[in-house]
Write a structure and sequence with these properties.
Layout: E1 12-19, E2 23-30, E3 37-44, H1 47-58, E4 63-69, H2 76-83, E5 87-91, H3 106-119, H4 130-162, H5 175-182, H6 189-219, H7 226-232, H8 240-250, H9 259-265, E6 270-272, E7 281-284, H10 290-300, H11 311-316, H12 322-344, H13 349-370, H14 375-381
Parallel strand pairs: 1-4, 4-5
Antiparallel strand pairs: 1-2, 2-3, 6-7
Helix pairs in contact: 4-6, 4-8, 7-8, 8-10, 9-13, 10-13, 12-13
Length: about 375
């Protein structure tokens, strides 16, 4: 590692950290337009070396500003540095300015991060607290279980289709459908083994999905953001699981000063490629959280039906404030009308649904502004 020397009158440093599973490449950019940018060295990606690095730097600089790109290493490094009393941001790799380079390595990446951090050209992401991250991990495990169940079902249906076995009933994966599958006859015994193994995998994935959903239902009431989950269920198309997914993926709704920012965050804003007087808008950007966007798109399909409050929705409304219910009803009337209007003009249904989902986000943002969170939740999201 190189020795640290401090320029006269320069007591602020910006640190770029290129993190990996076992190592962290460190670069320093001193404050000021002409401040020196240099490579400090490489340390182990472990708490002790990081603490030693921070202590060594505090002897030379009054203020330290750290940054590193979001990735598989998580938020542990950010929490460690922030716990030592220094500013540390996790930045969005997709928003990092790129330039054409022919040589890429850890040293250059760290130097570039330090330079961009000093220039203020990096986009930080919101870092959840440990409880929020735990809920998010549980939700993502549930989503994985759902995907695995669908994959096993698709494998079995594909096998049956290849052999000309087509179910004539209305709904698949009911008792009647499973009885029909087990009653099929094949020439080779290997086919029976394949069917039973797939059915066993489907049963296991269904049981795992049920267990995870039960754990989510049990844990969410003790979550600091549980009032937000409850309020979102006033919206048509947002079930309990959908509300938990949205809140866990987006996190702090208060950080968005305008609903368009939230719509952009979930990737529902239209893309644009304009030049001069010519304006060309394309499909949605699909940026940000894919899980949250999927929930919104699925919920938007419910607005193709007339506006009404079903018995199931009415049961969820007992504990929700009247202010939130008024916003949800206003949203339902407007969105149902807009879907009919767009389809009547010949708009493609998928385009109309994307527009409905984009407006759903705006109404959810309005609901989030009315919900009063506990003081602990406000402290964690601020």
């Amino acid at each position: 590692m190189t020795n640290i020397t401090t320029a006269v009158g320069n007591r602020t440093a910006f640190l770029g950290l290129d993190t990996h599973k076992e190592t962290i490449a460190v670069a320093i950019a001193e404050d000021g337009r002409t401040g020196e940018i240099r490579y400090f060295g490489q340390i182990r990606n472990e708490p002790a070396p990081v603490i030693k690095l921070v202590k060594k730097l505090t002897e030379k600089y009054d203020k330290l500003f750290f940054c590193y790109e979001a990735g598989p290493c998580g938020y542990g490094l950010q929490r460690l540095i922030a716990g030592l009393g220094h500013d540390c941001v996790v930045i969005s790799p997709s928003h990092t300015p790129k330039k054409g380079v022919h040589v890429k390595n850890d040293r250059r990446d760290a130097l570039e991060l330090a330079r961009l951090h000093r220039a203020g050209d990096l986009t930080p992401i919101w870092v959840p607290d440990t409880a929020h991250e735990a809920i998010r991990d549980l939700i993502r495990a549930r989503i994985t279980a759902m995907q695995m169940m669908k994959r096993y079902r698709q494998h079995l249906q594909g096998f049956l289709l290849r052999h000309g076995r087509i179910f004539q009933g209305k709904t698949s994966w009911t008792k009647a459908h499973l009885k029909w599958i087990r009653g099929l006859e094949f020439e080779h015994p290997a086919h029976y083994i394949l069917i039973e193994e797939n059915l066993a995998a489907i049963r296991d994935s269904e049981a795992r999905l049920e267990r995870l959903e039960k754990q989510i239902v049990d844990i969410v009431p003790s979550w600091a953001l549980a009032p937000l989950v409850e309020a979102f269920q006033a919206m048509r198309g947002i079930s309990h699981i959908a509300a938990v997914i949205l809140v866990s993926e987006v996190g702090d709704f208060q950080r968005f000063s305008h609903p368009r920012q939230l719509a952009s965050y979930v990737g529902l804003s239209p893309s644009e490629h304009s030049s001069g007087e010519k304006t060309i808008r394309g499909g949605i950007t699909k940026a940000g959280t894919e899980r949250g966007r999927r929930v919104l798109i699925e919920g938007a399909w419910t607005y193709r039906l007339p506006a009404r409050v079903s018995n199931y929705m009415a049961q969820r409304h007992h504990t929700i404030s009247q202010e939130v219910l008024d916003i949800a009803w206003k949203a339902q009337v407007r969105l149902c009308k807009r879907y009919r209007s767009m389809t009547a003009r010949g708009k493609n249904k998928n385009v109309a649904i994307a527009a409905i989902a984009r407006e759903m986000v705006c109404f959810l943002w309005a609901i989030a502004r009315t919900v009063k969170l506990p003081s602990s939740a406000v402290a964690l999201t601020s």
